[in-house]
Amino acid sequence: MKLIIRVFERTENAGQAGAMLIGGQMIRKPDSIFGLATGSTPVTTYKQLIKMTDDKLLDWNRVTTFNLDEYVGLPGDHEQSYKTFMKAKLFDFVNIRPEAIHIPDGMAEDPGAECMAYERKIREAGGIDLQLLGIGRNGHIGFNEPSDVFKTLTHCVDLSDDTIEANARFFSQPSRVPRQAISMGVGTIMKAWQIVLIATGSDKARAVAAMVQGPIDPQCPASILQTHPRVTVLLDRAASVALSR
Ligand code: PGA
């Protein structure tokens, strides 16, 4: 099945369209399980979801969420942890039950056991209905970095130099960026019933073209999405420029 690709003239419309797809899923199935992402890209989506919730369009009371990833070595209350990010950008402003929120524990004493437990929790919850994704400049999804093989399940990952450099903007010094993360695997992501990937800005254009039109290759982890039956890719014009017509 071909990926569905939509290109928006206004950058914020790509994120808002993502909120519409998430909202639609929540209206159709109030006990939906969502896979959520961090980073700059989904911020507009989360803002719009908060607005739709304020407008009484959405009710999070029966929703469950699983985040894609978390840095290893940052406590949940660290200002750069993904737990802090999710609270500040979404969870503190919607009526989700705290026990329905799942984010890998970056401080787990045994990260391997944490990965297996996370995978099991997703399975026991019934699997992800809709997974929201961004994409890294190097084609990563979650923290599945370019590699010789597709890493299938939730695992502990060494971050690539490119990702460390891209994320250094959030830390006072590049040396403070954690070197490892726990991430859902490509296989975990592919099991989601539906996937919505948002990419905006010219620095994503090459990765978007490789994802959509390149070979299916673990050197561009997002390229595996070509084999998923229900993927919607939401782009702004700048992120779409390297796509051939
Ligand atoms: P960004 O990150 O939204 O901050 O660009 C996306 C990603 O790395 O997946």
Structure description:
It is a single chain. Helix 7 (205-213) links the parallel strand 9 and strand 10 (231-236). This protein has a single domain (4-240), classed as Rossmann fold (3-Layer(aba) Sandwich), CATH 3.40.50. Helix 1 crosses helix 2. The radius of gyration is 17 Å and the shape is globular. The chain has 245 residues and is an alpha/beta fold. It has helices spanning 11-28, 43-54, 82-89, 111-125, 161-167, 186-190, 205-213, 237-240, and strands spanning 4-8, 33-36, 64-67, 69-71, 101-102, 130-133, 155-158, 180-183, 194-199, 231-236. The two termini are 18 Å apart. Strands 1-10-9-6-2-3-5 form a seven-stranded parallel sheet, sandwiched between helices. Residues 39-41, 134-136 line the site of 2-phosphoglycolic acid. 2-phosphoglycolic acid binds at residues 39-41, 134-136.
Separation, N- and C-terminal Cα atoms: 18 Å
Give me the side-by-side strand order of the main sheet: 1-10-9-6-2-3-5
What's the CATH C level?
Answer: Alpha Beta
Small-molecule binders here are: 2-phosphoglycolic acid
Supply the CATH architecture: 3-Layer(aba) Sandwich
Give the H and E element order.
Answer: EHEHEEHEHEEHEHEHEH
Secondary structure class reads alpha/beta
Global geometry: globular
Write the layout of secondary structure elements.
Blueprint: E1 4-8, H1 11-28, E2 33-36, H2 43-54, E3 64-67, E4 69-71, H3 82-89, E5 101-102, H4 111-125, E6 130-133, E7 155-158, H5 161-167, E8 180-183, H6 186-190, E9 194-199, H7 205-213, E10 231-236, H8 237-240
Parallel strand pairs: 1-10, 2-3, 2-6, 3-5, 6-9, 9-10
Antiparallel strand pairs: 4-8, 7-8
Helix pairs in contact: 1-2
This protein binds 2-phosphoglycolic acid.
2-phosphoglycolic acid (PGA) binds near residues 39, 41, 134, 135 and 136.
